[in-house]
Design goal:
By secondary structure, the chain is an alpha/beta fold. It folds into 2 domains: 4-11 and 257-380, Aspartate Aminotransferase, domain 1, CATH 3.90.1150.10; 16-253, Type I PLP-dependent aspartate aminotransferase-like (Major domain) (Aspartate Aminotransferase, domain 2, 3-Layer(aba) Sandwich). It is 40% helix and 13% strand. It has helices at residues 16-22, 38-58, 71-85, 101-111, 130-136, 159-169, 188-191, 240-278, 305-314, 334-338, 343-346, 360-380, and strands spanning 4-5, 65-68, 92-96, 116-120, 141-145, 172-176, 195-199, 210-214, 282-284, 295-300, 317-318, 349-353. It has a 7-stranded mixed beta sheet, sandwiched between helices. A 3-stranded antiparallel beta sheet has the order 9-10-12. Strands 1-11 form a two-stranded parallel sheet. Helix 6 (159-169) links the parallel strand 5 and strand 6. Helix 1 (16-22) runs antiparallel to helix 8 (240-278), helix 2 (38-58) packs parallel to helix 8 (240-278) and helix 8 (240-278) crosses helix 12. The radius of gyration is 21 Å and the shape is globular. The two termini are 34 Å apart.
């Protein structure tokens, strides 16, 4: 049985080239990058080379890149760091109602420190409308945080327009770019971003490493005290192998992102047409076209998404019902409820996210498997049509 992996929004495999780049830093090149001897100098040089590669991926300066343990830490550092440093200016933060928990939970924590957070609604397609952002701004607004593309439904936000509004009002603009960096072209200058979160394992790098872009001049406070690593913003001995891996992954993504996005878009559209064309009472969650090349989120009536995942897994196909960070929770997805779906509709969702290894043959096999599995589940369901 052929195994087909279509859960690349949850994680991607480490690219062989990335693994090869990392291996020497687990063995021969094991120096601490803060040491003054040759071992340390080698490690430091590797870190700075990786910093330049990550910066090049998003059109930033190397000095604006800070390495972290992943997307969650980057989101925490961006939101808490900017909020704490700028609390004398104001304590109002704007975000959306369907951000990743790494943003939502930080915002909830900040409310316990007397910050006020506005959670913006989204359209049925999952868009944050710029006019809604503008209307939410107050005299004490210090930060806007809107994810570049949603991790569950793939909708890409109008970042340029929101960035222009933030710049006009003198408000810092952060984005969780975990699902976009390396998957579509990302230009922090064009998007008007002051901070961007990146995760290594979403772009064929290792787990446990990420980065935060912070525009030069942005006032941000460290939330982790120690020896002053990463320009004093993120203390802790650097994860040299992970950083090297992220750098190599970023370098590879920069070379392939445009062509790969076009290829995956063709695969995505073929799968969308096959599933929606063959299965009655099915629909697509998220924007029909303004979405990630790799993402499809389907809804099916009369079935449970968890049961569909198990049937597909038995056929060697890996997909999900939503975010891997919350897929074991029984509550309806906050993303799907935010776009207006009811609890029953939410539980009939299927997220399929493509990657570099997927082929047109995979698409045909998966579309057939989805059709047959949905039909089987509906025959077993007491809720199905009679």
């Amino acid at each position: 049985m052929k195994r087909i992996y279509m859960d690349n929004a949850a994680t991607t495999p480490v690219a062989p080239e990335v693994l090869q780049a990392m291996l020497p830093y687990f063995s021969d090149l094991y120096g601490n990058a803060s040491s003054l001897h040759s071992f340390g100098i080698e490690a430091r040089a590797a870190i700075e080379e990786a910093r330049s590669k990550v910066a090049a991926l998003i059109n930033a300066e190397p000095s604006e890149i800070y390495f972290t343990s992943g997307g969650t830490e980057s989101d925490n550092l961006a939101l808490k760091g900017i909020a704490l440093k700028n609390r004398k200016k104001g304590r109002h933060i704007i975000t959306s109602s369907f951000e990743h928990p790494a943003v939502l939970e930080v915002c909830r924590a900040l409310t316990r420190l007397d910050y006020d957070v506005t959670y913006l609604p989204v359209t049925r397609d999952g868009l944050v409308e710029p006019d809604v952002v503008r209307a939410a701004i107050r005299h004490d607004t210090i930060l806007i945080s809107i994810m570049h593309a949603n991790n569950e439904i793939g909708t890409i936000q109008p970042m340029h327009e929101i960035g222009q509004i933030a710049r006009e009002k003198g408000i810092y603009f952060h984005s969780d770019g975990v699902q976009t960096a390396g998957k579509i072209p990302v230009d922090v200058e064009a998007l008007g971003l002051d901070a961007l979160s990146i995760s290594g394992h979403k772009l064929y790098g290792p787990k446990g490493i990420g980065a935060l872009y912070v525009r030069k001049g942005v006032k941000i406070e460290s939330i982790q005290q120690g020896g002053g690593h990463e320009g004093g913003l993120r203390s802790g001995t650097e994860n040299v192998p992970g950083i090297v891996g992220l750098g190599r992954a970023a370098d590879m993504a920069k070379e392939t992102v445009t062509d790969e996005a076009k290829r995956q878009t063709a695969l995505r559209d073929r799968l969308k047409e096959a599933v929606l064309g063959r299965i009655d009472e099915s629909w697509l969650n998220g924007h029909p076209s303004q979405r990630l090349p790799s993402n499809l989120n389907f809804g099916f009536r009369y079935i449970e998404g968890e049961s569909l995942i198990l049937l597909l897994d038995a056929r060697g196909i890996a997909a999900s019902t939503g975010s891997a960070c919350s897929s074991k929770k029984l509550a309806a997805s906050h993303v799907l409820t935010a776009i207006g779906l009811g609890p029953v509709e939410c539980h009939g969702s299927l997220r399929v996210t493509l990657g570099r290894s997927n082929t047109m043959e995979d698409i045909d096999l998966v579309s057939q498997a989805i059709e047959e599995s949905v039909s089987r589940l509906r025959k077993m369901s007491a809720l199905g049509p009679r």
